[in-house]
Structures
1.
Amino acid sequence: MRAVDLIRKKRDGGALSGEEISFLVGGHLRGAVPDYQMSAFLMSVYNRGMSEEETIALTKAMAASGRALELGGIQGIKIDKHSTGGVGDKTNLILAPLMAAMGLKMPSIAGRGLGHTGGTIDKLASIPGLRTEIAPWEVLETVKNVGFSICGQTDEIGPADRRLYALRDATATVESTPLIAASIMSKKLSEGLDALVLDVKTGSGGFMRGMDEARQLARLMVGIGNQAGIKTVAVITDMDAPLGRTVGNALEVKECISALKGRFAPDLLEVTMTLAAWMLHLADSVSEETRPQRLGEHLLKRYKDEAWDYIEHGDAFKKFVEFIDAQQGDPEAAFNPALLPRAMHIKPVLSPWNGYIRRMDAFAVGQASMLLGAGRAKMDDVIDPAAGIVIGKKPGDAVRAEEPFATFYTNEAATLAMAEEVFLSGIEISDREPAKRKLIHDVVLPF
Ligand code: URA
């Protein structure tokens, strides 16, 4: 078998067998298939797509490249939540300690930022000393002792995704349904889970711009998860505007610390608590051996109220502190966010007009944040953990001309003007108050 023949086959629209896909994934990992050939393969998949069978084969080959976490000896229901990626999308850092406080176990393998979106691992890297490149035994210890762990892909955990993830980011091949599904589900299949909630983002700031694509990705991943024996549902949530009030790594960690103390932006609260409710419902359906049901308003509220208790009484915050300590970060940072990296240059962005914010395009906000230093344009770019944007006014809010509606943070003053131009290109202001945005669009259940 030769890589070049398989690339040609996919380039011309053919379907690859499981053996052929394993040959490419394994060969790439061993160095027998170089990055340039794998890049050509990724671009062929981006252009031609993959059948469901091929996507499942790719997911399995990627999962088999590393070690599975062996959580069998740890008591409790193992659950995770994974997002397809967004701007200001920080719910993992709130949900993991929350679920641990509620007695569930969450062994999360997460990723760095991709394209204009942020990544959980980059956010955690802004906490002084915190390690996310840890060995499987350290993940198990932390899950056992704290209730959750968040680690990045390593040579042992998700190694194929580690390599492909970085390559996709640098070759404009991120926005591909099979590649996203295989990337996410290969990590989740390695976690030894009982249940999984997927947050499929739709809108300008997600990789799936429209509802049809989002539903297709959600159904594909829900199918892969359930076939593997993991109770999986997907919640399709809005990513037309950034989530919460911050974009950028240390800034988002600070927002999560506030949220864990009960202070949430309304949109972040609704999305986080909806995901929490679904996680609790799935955990119940694991212990009761029932099928997950569509949640009515009443049950949804009951789960949300139950979760809120653990925020309100400080249990989730306490778990977050324990987690930082267990992964060798400085737990003081949770009490004193001034210990997180701080930017030298701070600039308010003023509203050009009077009116209501009708649109704050998440893609433009993500691009502006990248320009300030919060994201990578190339594989080896170094992120500035302090860089990013604090959003003072959200869509639907009234603003006056010259009123600051966002604040930029960076250590590179030269980036400010361009970032402002990009940010403002995504803002629309209207005379009339816009209709309230819908945040939760749909839920995809196993069929
Ligand atoms: N998250 C992942 O882990 N992979 C993707 O491809 C997108 C989001």
2.
Amino acid sequence: MSTQTLYLPNVGSDAVEVMQIFVAVGDQIVVEQPLIVVEGDKVSMEIPAAAGGCIQDLTVQVGDKIRTGAAILQLSGDVQAVAAEAEKAPVVAPASLTVATEKEVALVAELPVTSTTESPISMEAVIDNSAYVYASPLVRRMAREFGIDLSRIIGSGPKGRIVPEDLQIYVKSALQRAVNITPGVSTEGPSGLQLLPWPQVDFSQFGDVERQDLSRINRATGANLHRNWVQIPHVTQGGSADITELEAFRQQQNNEPEQQKLGIKLTPLVFILLAVAKALQRFPRFNSSLSTDGQQLILKKYVHLGIAVDTPNGLVVPVIRDVDQQGLWQLAQTVAQTSQRARAGQLTPADMQGGCFTISSLGGIGGTTFTPIINAPEVAILGVSKAMQQPQWNGQQFIPRLMLPLSLSYDHRVIDGAEGARFMTTLERLLADTRRLLL
Ligand code: CAO
């Protein structure tokens, strides 16, 4: 049985580092098969096999610093030399030495400067498959640095070799896709969605049109809602609370001469805020956020509730703090003042931070049901529609009751269906008999 040692060919006088090893002991290799990648200060090169056979021993490891002539591995069995001369001088032919050309270096320098953590390219599928693709060491090195899986790229070079231009095009298009996730040109975004391009239509061909700029609030809200809708698996649970008694109490309170003098009134929203605060204490997962890595729940020990307010410039969500510690009238005053400031454009960023859960009440306007979009990083939101008199069966006959339609959207990663239904049932019971708020 013949054996043969393969050596590092002439790479100059400096030591080079072993960056990658493509083969293992026991592998049957063929002539010209890539063995290792070495990098020095000025060169990065792939070392192909000068002979084929079975690898009996590997004498280098990743990270080793080696010089010209160092042994790389030992072959045994039926060794096939690339040429007779290889027996004597195992030096790789110049064509196999893939030292970066000036053109390659210039092209790679043009790649956008992006750290791999900010890169829109998935880091999960990086490198593993790259040993099986045909690319120069320089391209491999750049792929490593940019976190690109080379197996995703179709090479445009001879025999499908991936050349630096391919890498450049791939990175540019990946960045472009990340930027263009908004409607209009979206194709593939960081969340992995494969979407058709947005239809480009010249509407004026069908009749007169007018263009209006979206307000700053419209644009910011739109971007947030889009992200939340796309990234959170929403479930919307419907419900309906009998607020007949609540409404009688509310009317009676609002008609008190003392309260009328103060000029503040109770609306259903104030009761709903208190009922939600109570329900959040009973169902702590609704008062949580997912950690950024999605591995933990952050449970909040405070109850700050956002309320969606319709303003002339668009939707804003100020936060009412410590709702669970406020009385009905105090809360009514806070809600009235907050919505006035919101409509006057006087809210500060701090007024809109720290919310645990949001209530979007369209009850003063109308409608029967809708799908509220969760206000990330919160995990649930309650939509409230207009209360209507409806016939309810009391076991003997239908009687008119004032029914309040509720729509609860929750993040299904955090809350399961049964818990969603229990939360809704609890809310309905709290609103149907507000004495329960005291329990
Ligand atoms: N059913 C029936 N009537 C209701 C009701 C309901 N669910 N909710 C409120 N009302 C009544 C109020 O009682 C009041 O009537 P009275 O004066 O006769 O008592 C009237 O509707 C107006 O209430 P309001 O809207 O002034 O007060 P509110 O406390 O209910 O709501 C606020 C305050 C700021 C939430 C609300 O004005 C608002 O902006 N809502 C819009 C929220 C929104 O746009 N959500 C959508 C988000 S997604 O795009």
3.
Amino acid sequence: MSVQGEIKRITTHTLQSMKQHGEKISMLTAYDFSMARIFDEAGIDVLLVGDSASNVMAGHETTLPITLDQMIYHAQSVIRACHRSLVIVDLPFGSYQGNSKEALNSAIRIMKEAGAHGIKLEGGEEVCDSIKRIVGAGVPVMGHLGLTPQSIYKFGTYSVRAKEEEEAEILINNAHLLQSSGCFSLVLEKIPAALGAEVASQLKIPVIGIGAGRHVDGQVLVMHDMLGITKNFSPRFLRRYLDLYTGISDATKQYISDVKSRDFPNENEQY
Ligand code: KIV
């Protein structure tokens, strides 16, 4: 029997227990009601309303433009669909970096207006005061280290982070700081697998990877990548489970053809 087999709603405590029992955590992004309902009913453990909505839903090049109001709108739609999954919402760029009061206010808006179960934010030492304040208000916080897309203009590229020893040591130190500041979990993005394994073994809290190898405590993918809706994006860590781009495109072409040829609607498809 899996850890979550007997319970109705996944909580941060369930995830902790899954780590202790060696049960891997499954997490996907979601941004709308219909997809979230499918994921929730399929049994996903965690849904992340990621600020990647800025890319895959709004078509921006980076995650920076999405606003707190827009994140709340996406989160409300996802929450309405979920009866079992833990729903975590990204604090968007500009909604928490100013100071810990701003961070707390943004987290409270997400909890109150969307009914989320927790928030995620990016960064290490520099966000620890904010994490302590948000956790102190009773809001679960997930950290995010490694490739942190809100800092893309600082990094300059989306390449693998912390390959050198110095950056790896800083990352490990930051992971411990996030844990001691009260994070219930940590996302590690695009780092060497050996470093992912090291962090997961050193931390007590669950570590969820995206391109952080197989020895972390769980995996997350962006739904559009996992389902093959995005094109021309094939990082090594991505496994596509469907080719929805082709499926949707073919269905659309067939529909156009049926309308033009007067095949649709037929006698049985009208009143
Ligand atoms: O916004 C997002 O989709 C994320 C995942 C990549 C973890 O932060």
4.
Amino acid sequence: MHDHNPKTLPDGFRKLDPPTRRERLRVALGIEAAADEFTSTGSDDALVELSSLMVESSIGYAPVPLGVAHGFLIDGVGFDIPMATEEPSVIAAASYAARIIAKGGGFTSRATEPVMVTQLFLEGVSDEGLEQLADESLRVGAAIQPFLGSLPARGGGFRGMSVERLPQTAIAKVSISIDVRDAMGANILNTAAEGVCPLIEEISGGKRLMCILSNAATDRRGAARCSIPFSVLGGAAGSNGDGAGTARRIELATRVADEDPSRGITHNKGVMNGISALALATFNDCRSIEAAAHLWAARDGRYRSLTSWRVEGEALVGEIELPLSFGAVGGAAAFHPASRLALDMLGHPGAPTLARIAASLGLAQNFAALLSLVTGGIQKGHMRYHAPRIAYMAGARGAEIAAVAQAMTAEKNFSMHEARTLLASYREGRLPARN
Ligand code: MEV
């Protein structure tokens, strides 16, 4: 990894208030002041103008919370990862997992070249036409060049073509591989497919049904690995010193996800809690990344776990590999100040580095979920975040929120009625103040 910024946020970041956090972000990471303004208010005229440049009939923003998962060590370099998510415990869980994994040496990661596939589907292609097309891939490769813009000059471009007939519809499918470098690539891929289509029709004698990229991204993958010694795992919350026992249970939980698709999908949803939050923070196409992940999980005809956790000697070893079509330039990622802020925080990574970070984050998120599922259970952590929201909905504001939430947690009663009763008590001075 050469294209990152190794500076990270100071410890204790999460204990600061949001304006102080933003100030620390700017000082610690050298984030531009403009980006700070854009993420802090959401009501600025300039922001509304940007929104209308991005979507039709814009009326503003749906402000999904943006936070930072702190303390990732990936290939020896520290990262603080921006995450946009509406789910309360996700960022805390990622940070907690990152800290434990860092104690075991952190993540090692890798990524493939950023090769994507664009597809043409043609009607009325004879067997001879199909063969002819298969023989002419170099001609297609040359003809596609003008539609690739500056990609070849940047080291990307045409990487090959394959043809096949779909058995049920008899449609001819032409798949063209293109290295899209640091872009997500959707525009380049769609432009290239449409641009080269007349030649493909001419060679094959067929007629275009449609041209569009494939979101499968099976050739564009990120991978991460970590090894957590039992001695470290034993110190994790809920492990009670029994690192070996926790490791065995996490391994077993992963085998269950692999065996039973109805559990596997929840296990993988947890992985995507991390990856999609990074995708959203960097204005990448979450739907594309999610769709590709689930197709990959079912690539051998059965839906399986995206991660593997197994005991090796005196450690728990986790691995993940999946398609990750993250773009770091072009598209919305480069357009909006909020996504530029997120990329800034990561030290302006190229797309392969972003895929490595995403893979590490997905593995961390999955580890955090499994750790709590096989030890104390998930609800304890969830309720910690749920209680303040109930307190807020009951009318608590400012210092009242923490006081009411902590009283609810102590009483293990999270009903709205209880929140209102406790709020009334607090206002009458019958409940201690908290922070
Ligand atoms: C919740 O958003 C994610 C989990 O359900 C993941 C899992 O079950 O592995 C906790």
